[in-house]
Amino acid sequence: MEKCKAACAAWLSLHVVCEEGKKGQTCGRRGQGGCVIELDRVAMSYGGGELFGDISLKVQPGSFHFLTGPSGAGKTTFLKLCYGALRPTAGQVRLFGQDVRGLGRDDVALMRRRIGVVHQDVQFLDHLSVADNVALPLTVSGRDSADQLANLDELLAWVGLRARADARPAELSGGERQRAALARAVIMQPEVVLADEPTGNIDWEMSQRLLQLLVELNRMGTTILVATHDLNLIRAAKSQVQTRVLRISNRRLQLAGADL
Amino acid sequence: MTRLRAILAEGVALVIGDPQADRLVPPTGFTARLTTFAAGAMAFLAVFALALSLASGRLAARWSEELARSSTIRISAPAEERAAQTEAVLRILQATPGVAQARAIPAEEAAALLEPWFGPNLPLDTLPVPQLIEVVEESTGFDPQGLRLRLTAEVPGAVLDDHTRWRAPLVQAASRLRILGLLSILLIGATTAAMITLAAQAALAANAQVIAVLRLVGAQDGYIAQAFVRRFTLRALSGAGIGVAFGLVAVWLLPSAQEAGGFLTGLGYRGWHWVLPLVIPVLGAGVAFVATSAAARRVLRELT
Question: What is residue A13's DSSP assignment?
Fold first, then answer.
């Protein structure tokens, strides 16, 4: 822990991030070291140019990470690596201890049932109601039983969308769409929630509400990784929960914190 | 056995479907109508191609069987010798092994045979029409070469025609027509597959966002593909069913062979053959299933 603090203060290149898991969390069924997400000397290139390289990271269960950096630094790409949507050009990505290189498309799909994802530009199935969209992960996994769906109403209430359950996604405001996306991301009770600029299109008040939901999830033991350039959001989160802030800068992943 | 059970279970699952999964893909009016129409039109044509193939088969079998068992002896002789030569030929035939029956065709019957070309009330006595003797063989057949030699020696004006010269090309033509019919069915099947593949690809491409969302929430490729495959298979099944129904009505309305005779009016189904077109919708659905499955696999791979 002391090592990591030192690395954070000195903005050292982050090859290994060590973090204690939340108390009471067990990681035995996960990969070596109990990490939910592990990147080992990962590099990513597009069109011959390197977006970032030599990135290593271990995300422990129950942790709350922010990923920040300038636009175009590769935050979205980084998140996509973390849920198996992209394969690194070099290095190794392990999700729940499994190397994504050895996973087929269907394996990745199964993996995503354990990782909820929220994008800035949320996509829904526009011909379905909000409730149906939120229940989508249950539907595709064949778990849309009455018991499972009974939790849907509770979940919609939690994100403040119970009254909008029958609305079409196009009828929702930006904040409501983000909350619906969060509800969809957590309905399978995933171990990890990844959010890519979740507050990018919504006002501050709504951002605070969404952050509150993420913090509550984290307090329940869910690992959270949020990519954002909104430093105010990070500061607001730090006042409520123990977070770790990572920054992609100059094609490297670094620990941030002292200036936030 | 296990594999068969798995296939059967898959087939049942395809028919019963998953109402929830079906709802995930938005209805696409254009491709739905296109698929149903294409399957219907192709099934309609397949009904006729099948009828053509079956009629050609019947014709080839009939020609082959009837002509192979019969021969004709033509007697070209002066009128005063004709009766004696006819008697002589009939005597020879009675003594020829393998000949079941022989009869001299009467003048009225000969006139009836020529009527399609010369019209009714033909004055046969004014024309040099030869006397014809119809020979029906036993199943063992007779020796045509031996009979020819004997006829040449005893009745010089008699010529044996065992139909081999023109039977073979006729039977061959009918057989080729049958093959053409079958080939047409294959081409119709391939065209149906191509059309449904294009429609399925268009539908999959148009639903790229839906596929992205489904993948994001953990849907496996098989689940996504099934939603499209089931939809296209059922569309093809219903379209082909409608096409076959129209095709059967059209074939049924064709003039019957008994009324006018001739090959074209015999272009229809006989007996249990009426059941065969009912297989076309099932085959159409099978073609759609395979075509859409392949298209879905390809598109899903490309969308990765």
Answer: B
Kindly write down the DSSP assignment for every residue of A72-130, as one continuous string.
TSSHHHHHHHHTTSS--SEEEEEETTEEGGG--HHHHHHHHTTEEEE-SS----TTS-H
Query: Which residue from B minimizes the CA distance to A85?
Result: B304
Closest to A77 measured CA to CA, from A179, A217, A227: A227
How far CA B54 is from CA of A66, A86, B185, B188, B262, in Å, comes to 73, 56, 12, 16, 15
- Measure the CA–CA gap between B215 and A83, rounded to whole angstroms: 11
Please tell me if residue A251 touches chain B, with a CB cutoff of 8 Å: no
Indicate the residue type of B93: L
- Residue A211: per-residue pLDDT: 92
CA angle A216, A218, A220 (to 5 degrees): 75
- The verdict on A82 touching B (C-beta cutoff 8 Å) is no
Which residues in chain B land under pLDDT 70?
Answer: 1, 3, 6-8, 10-11, 13-17, 19, 29, 67-68, 124, 164-165, 256-266, 304
Angle between helices B29-68 and B164-206 (to 10 degrees): 170
> Which domains are seen in chain A, by residue range?
2-114+190-256 (3.40.50.300), 125-182 (no CATH)
The Cα A20–Cα B284 span in angstroms is 61
pLDDT of residue A17: 35
Amino acid (one-letter) located at B34: L
Report the C-alpha gap between B20 and B227 in whole angstroms.
10
Residue type, A98: Q
- pLDDT tens for each residue of B186-209: 999 999 889 988 888 888 888 888
Spatial contact of A227 and A78, defined as CB atoms under 8 Å apart: yes
pLDDT band at A24 (very low <50, low <70, confident <90, very high): very low
pLDDT of A100 > 60? The answer is yes
* Continuous segment of H or E residues that includes residue A49: strand A49-59
DSSP code for A26: -
Contacts for B110 with CB less than 8 Å, ≥ 6 apart: B124, B129, B132
Residue A22 pLDDT exceeds 60: no
pLDDT attached to residue A243: 93
Q: Chain B contacts of A125, Cβ < 8 Å?
A: 24, 26, 210, 213
DSSP conformation class of A247: E
CA atoms within 13 A on the CB side of A102: 7
Query: Max alpha carbon distance in chain B (Å)?
Result: 101
| Distance in angstroms (rounded) separating the CA atoms of residues A49 and A55 | 16
Asked if A139 lies within 8 A of B20 by C-beta distance, the reply is: yes
The answer to whether B65 touches B129, Cβ cutoff 8 Å, is: no
CA angle B302, A192, A210 (to 5 degrees): 100
Q: What is the mean pLDDT of residues A48-69?
A: 92
The secondary element (H helix, E strand) that includes residue A52 is strand A49-59
**Residues in chain B within 8 Å Cβ distance of A139:** 20-21, 24
A3 to A9, A18, A238, A259, B15: CA distances (angstroms) = 10, 9, 21, 19, 61
